[in-house]
Amino acid sequence: MIEPGDAAVEDRGTPTLEEVARVAGVSRSTVSRVINDLPGVSGRARESVNEAIRLLGYVPNEAARSLVTRRTNSIALVVSEPGDRVFSDPFFAGVLRGIHSGLAGSHRQLVLMLMAEDGNGNGNGEQLEKYLSSGHVDGALVVSMHGDDALPQRLAEGGLPVVVGGRPLSGTEVPYVDSDNFTGGLLAARHLVERGKRRIATIAGPADMAVGIDRLVGWRRGMSEAKLATDAVVHSDFSVEGGARAMAELLDRHPDVDAVFAAADIVAVGAVRELSARGKRIPDDVAVVGFDDSVLATSVTPQLTTVRQTVEEFGRTMTWRLLAQLAGEEYLPPSILLPTELVVRQSS
Amino acid sequence: MIEPGDAAVEDRGTPTLEEVARVAGVSRSTVSRVINDLPGVSGRARESVNEAIRLLGYVPNEAARSLVTRRTNSIALVVSEPGDRVFSDPFFAGVLRGIHSGLAGSHRQLVLMLMAEDGNGNGNGEQLEKYLSSGHVDGALVVSMHGDDALPQRLAEGGLPVVVGGRPLSGTEVPYVDSDNFTGGLLAARHLVERGKRRIATIAGPADMAVGIDRLVGWRRGMSEAKLATDAVVHSDFSVEGGARAMAELLDRHPDVDAVFAAADIVAVGAVRELSARGKRIPDDVAVVGFDDSVLATSVTPQLTTVRQTVEEFGRTMTWRLLAQLAGEEYLPPSILLPTELVVRQSS
DNA sequence: CACAATCTTGGGAGCGCTCCCAGATTGCGG
DNA sequence: CCGCAATCTGGGAGCGCTCCCAAGATTGTG
Fold first, then answer.
1. Which chain A residues are within 8 Å of B74, Cβ to Cβ?
2. What is the DSSP string of B99-148?
3. B151, B158, B169: which is closest to B80 by C-alpha?
4. What is the pLDDT of residues A12-54, one digit of tens each?
5. Is the C-alpha dihedral spanning A256, A261, A262, A263 positive or negative?
6. Which residues on chain A are in Cβ contact (under 8 Å) with B96?
7. Which residues in chain A touch residue B90, judged by CB atoms under 8 angstroms apart?
8. Quick one: which of A59, A64, A72, A281 has the most CB atoms within 10 Å?
């Protein structure tokens, strides 16, 4: 029996593979095999190695390992937003939780990188790109790209496995994960039609983001199905104020509006506020449908009918896709759409 | 002049120090000196090395460097919350932004680690602790510890530089950064007294968090100064509903309350909602003061008088403290309190 | 019982870098 | 013109690990 205090065990700094080998009475190679769970080790050897590891509190030196394997066991999460907006967004919180849960058990670390501008228009994008493409991480998850930033494309071309969250605007080879925003918009429109509404407006998201476009297009499809006009459209950013402003504009331009599909719950909240301010009853005068099914949906009065997307699954799926690619799996889907579903509450 | 395409430059994979040396016509050592900005290199040598680096697109291999220097150039951000709550919290978003900005130019990466439980009560805390104390990161920032988790203490004892965000409940040697919550509470109380209020209540934060206790104690101090009673106290979690419930309880128990200091804006929002529901006018019947000066403060009606804490500075200060410690600076303050100030708006 | 096939094991080489030390070069006063 | 310090440069060793290959141990088979 080996005990701490044995001459063989005594030691100064962090234990190395070599010392584990000495204590276990085997060679470096054998210890390495045990650690990496490789075959070709007798039960006896395996046991004494594990015992020695426990005894010494040995933890492999990642740097040394990384140096030879050319893997870093870390992946980057690139967030290309000023930070404030993203991080206070419940959507992002859910995605992050999903990523974390998707990473559990994979023995990989998450390196967080914000793409920021320093106020002089100088971003850290170049530096970030260099870092990412230099083998510091095994892969990257990129979320909330606006417009058609070609960063993911360039990274992928540089040989780095990349998965994008949210459909990129410009067609690209880079795999992405997204909610089925089109179907979500479609469901919202159909639902409002079924409710007997005929003058259905929408407050769409930003016109330069796929998430805005896709939901709008889905809504249009639903309207066309019912042979209804699709002219009551206003774009807004994702904020309460934006939603309120957009609602006001809609009411001014189309006083006969009897329903509105807002591209996000937060926008719907603004719309509800404006409607209430104008004395419109919800849903009788104007029905409202949101998108996201975030906490907001159930914390306003009336509670929102909304299109649910499973944000946590979003993050988990991105992670899964990336890890699968890293593992060299074949026939992986280039992109993945996650289902959305309608949740009916009081506002419609 | 060296050109890409020269025989000396041609190459297969990622360039190494050695190749840069060859191209530049100097030795490994000289290149290393240039890269690490060490003295003792002639201008001529330095130039040709830089030229070669540019030419080859050389980026140092962090693993190799880390292996010998025993530094990783990365620090951990440990968040010990279920994730959802923290990440959707604007406070945390600001802190994260501050950390990021504090890290800018330091050439260090942020490794994000969530302390999560898997629903069976099994956390990843042990694994996380092992990882952190095994030299995978140079230091750690730990935020939102609840109660008196001894993780930071243990990490610090293990030799890892640690800075905690928010005063730990139990006394500890670990340096921390916090807002001056005591003074914040004091300012709020004094302000309400000055406004002529005499029956001033408080909705305090959780009794097991320093942030809750300190603000409460500050309020008590302010009340004592004015010789006012400090019995109208109710604790609440940081949520709108909690705030509303707490306000209801206060009104039931002390119908004569004419002012309330809420330990957070989000709680104040709940209080405002409850007050409005009961037909109380703000600030005439009951004045309200919040804490944080988050976006909430200005997005409710009436806009909140609140105690401002500079969240971004919070994160930046944590980072600074950690980096300074890593740099071996002496006479560093064990803990740092950031000033809070009163922002008067409509609710008081 | 000899020999092949299989399973285990150990040692060497080398990943790309930093750091130390010794050697080469230069400057300058005696 | 030499000596000695100051400046600059190069090579070796080694960080802790993985991976390859050869050698040893064990088992099976004619």
1. 111
2. HHHHHTTTT-EEEEEE--B-SSS-BSHHHHHHHHTTTSSSEEEEE---TT
3. B151
4. 578 999 999 999 999 999 999 999 999 888 889 999 999 999 9
5. negative
6. 83, 87
7. 84, 88
8. A72
pTM, whole model, 2 decimals?
A: 0.87
Statement: residue B8 has pLDDT above 50 = no
Q: Please report the pLDDT score of residue B72 as a whole number.
A: 92
Angle at B25 between CA B24 and CA B27, to 5 degrees: 100
Alpha-carbon Rg for chain A in angstroms = 27
Q: What pLDDT was estimated at residue A86?
A: 62
SS3 A264: coil
Output the six-digit token pair for B165. Answer: 């965000």
Residues 60-89 of B with CB under 7 A from strand D: 64, 67-68
The pLDDT of residue A120 is 59
Asked whether the predicted pLDDT for residue A5 surpasses 50, the reply is no
For residues A122, A125, A128, A129, the Cα torsion angle rounded to the nearest 10 degrees is -140
CB B164 within 8 A of CB B175: yes
Return the number of other C-beta atoms located less than 10 Å from residue B269's C-beta: 23
DSSP for B279-331 reads T--TTTTSEEEEEE--HHHHHSSSPPEEEEE-HHHHHHHHHHHHHHHHTT-SS
Interface test with A, best of B96, B276, B294, B310 (most A CBs within 10 A): B96
Residues in CB range of A130: below 8 A, 6 or more apart: B59
Residues with Cβ within 8 Å of A179's Cβ and at least 6 positions away in sequence, in order, are: A309, A310, A314, A337, A338, A339, A340
Please name the residue that has the structure tokens 């000033």. B339
Interface size between A and B, measured as CB pairs under 8 A: 107
Nucleotide nearest A68, from its CA to each C1': C15
- Residues near A281 by Cβ (< 8 Å), separated by ≥ 6? none
Interface test with B, best of A100, A103, A107 (most B CBs within 10 A): A100
A218-233 pLDDT, tens per residue?
999 999 999 999 999 9
Phi, psi of A202 (to 5 degrees): -140, 140
Of the pLDDT bands very low, low, confident and very high (cuts 50, 70, 90), residue A81 is low
Q: Which two tokens stand for residue A155?
A: 């990274």
Alpha helices in chain B (DSSP H): 17-24, 28-35, 43-56, 62-69, 84-88, 90-103, 125-132, 151-157, 181-194, 210-225, 240-253, 265-277, 295-299, 311-326
Cross-strand pairs, B35: none
Count Cα atoms within 13 angstroms, Cβ side, for B130. 11
Label residue B284 exposed, middle or buried (CB < 10 Å: 0-12, 13-18, 19+): exposed
Q: Is residue B3 within 8 Å of B51, Cβ to Cβ?
A: no
Phi and psi based region of residue B276 (left: phi greater than 0; alpha: psi -120 to 50; beta: remaining)? alpha
B60 prior amide bond cis, ω within 30: no
Q: Under DSSP, is residue A28 helix (H, G, I), strand (E, B) or coil?
A: helix
Residue B131: closest C-alpha in chain A: A59
